[in-house]
Amino acid sequence: MKNIRRNVIFSGVGYILPLLAALLTIPLMLKYFGVDQYGLYIICISLIGFMSFVDLGVGQAVIKYVAEYEATGQAHKVKPVLDIALLMYLGLGLLMVTALFVFSPALAGFLYESPQQAADASIALRITSLALFLSYINQFFLNVSRAYHRFDVPAVIHNAGNISGVVLTTLLLLAGYALHEVLWGYVFIQAIALCSGYLAGRKVLPAGVQFGMAFDLPIFRGMISFSAYTFVSNFVIALVTRADKLLIGGIIGTDAVTYYQIPYTIVQMANGIVNTLVVILFPRFSELSSLKVKTELLNLYRHATHVVFFISGLIAVMLIAAGGNFLSLWVSPEFADKTTLTLQIIALFSFFNANLSVAYWAAQGSGQARLIAFVLVLSGLAYGIGLFALGNLYSYNGVAVALFLSLLPFPLLFMWVAREIGHRLNEYLFGLVLTTLLGLVAVYALLWVNNLFGNALVSIVVNGVVGILAGLAFFAWFFKQKKSRETLTIQTDTAVTAQG
């Protein structure tokens, strides 16, 4: 695949650096903001992320159709796709920023009963709307780079913005500034990121293609048939992963947002590497699907599934076994007492959820936006019902358990994979059960080791060393097997040619 080595390296490094920055600064933010204000800060940042998903599916349409048209010799259709997408991003961005600005007082009133707290929250949300607009428009330019297999460029820009935002927030807090000034810092960072995204997008475009805002009705009709369903999918994902913080704050309280979000953030950052690597395959899935190369598509799907099983399983084991010790050292023993179970529940959920990513991007690359939208709507409804019911009964731990309900409709997606790609459902279930059983054994073994040492820091170090060694052993085996299969294929093709 084009630029595969560079994409993996930059995406991996771009994933690790923001993770380290967050690990170093979240305890400090929690100290200076306080539990309640940190919860509001998380809500504002989550809204920026939430709105980046609400693009009517245009972003994924850009990646899919540009990759498909380039692969099938229809490059003349690329510029109309980009022009339509830019028009839609600008229109939707202005609509969303206006809506958030106008309804900020109502949202603030939903979060706080105190008039003073509500007024401060309203100002914070309105500042957030400006950062949201800049971030939203930048998604268009970053998706142009992704469409041309340059996932390294968006990784650098996006993660540099994340790191800069975290560092600037920390510096402003240390200098004595409050939430409103911190959010203005995010506006500044997003403005720089937008300029960088624009320049990077222009650089990857083929000669003779420039950004414009022309409108081609036939191209638009083709795009909207795909992007409308993708929008539904992205909107549901955003509700489940971003906007749920607003609901938790209104139903349970902004302090509950903090106790839920910090464990969620740890798990999300740890598992982010899975989707970061799998999404690189999206344009390749689109190309292979459009060229109808089913054997190569199945091989790509199977290899990606094996890697995801291992990575997600290893991450879950590390978090479940060492998460409590990490929280105790990272934040405080008191905080760990309240949130260790939450982290373990979310870690287990994320193992199952991460293993859906290959099927999701394979189906999206094959144009199955309608099926994905149907599955995700059912998923979002199940999670929403669980959030209200279990959140009221068991607070933030109930919300964590409700995440599992979102997995219920996904067998429908795996049925499509079995039929169209050839990866059978029983093969997936065997891998899932085997990884789960091995993971349980590993968790109990690591917990025994942790009890043996009786020291949180030593336990974390030992668990980390075991995880690194397991990872090196797996990838050494995986690439050896892959090389053996490729050699066998070459020998078989040579023999067939000789007989012919």
Q: What is the topology?
A:
Layout: H1 4-53, H2 58-71, H3 78-111, H4 115-147, H5 152-174, H6 179-204, H7 217-251, H8 254-278, H9 282-291, H10 294-330, H11 333-354, H12 357-365, H13 369-402, H14 411-420, H15 425-453, H16 456-499
Helix pairs in contact: 1-4, 1-5, 1-7, 1-8, 2-3, 2-4, 2-7, 2-9, 3-4, 3-7, 4-5, 4-6, 5-6, 7-8, 7-13, 8-10, 8-11, 8-13, 9-12, 10-11, 10-12, 10-15, 10-16, 11-13, 12-14, 15-16
Structure, explained:
The chain is mostly helical and 500 residues long. The chain has 2 domains: 215 residues, no CATH class; 254 residues, no CATH class. Helix content is 87%, strand content 0%. It has 16 helices and no strands. α1 crosses α7, α8 runs parallel beside α11 and α11 packs antiparallel against α13. It is globular, with a radius of gyration of 23 Å. The two termini are 30 Å apart.
Condensed summary:
The chain has 500 residues and is mainly α. 87% of the residues lie in helices and 0% in strands. Helix 2 (58-71) runs antiparallel to helix 3, helix 2 packs across helix 9 and helix 3 packs parallel to helix 7 (217-251).
Spell out the helices and strands N to C.
Answer: HHHHHHHHHHHHHHHH
Mean pLDDT: 82
- Integer count of domains: 2
- Estimated helix fraction: over 70%
**Count of helical segments?**
16
Q: What is the overall shape?
A: globular
What is the SS-derived class? mainly alpha
The whole-angstrom Rg is 23 Å
First-residue to last-residue Cα separation: 30 Å
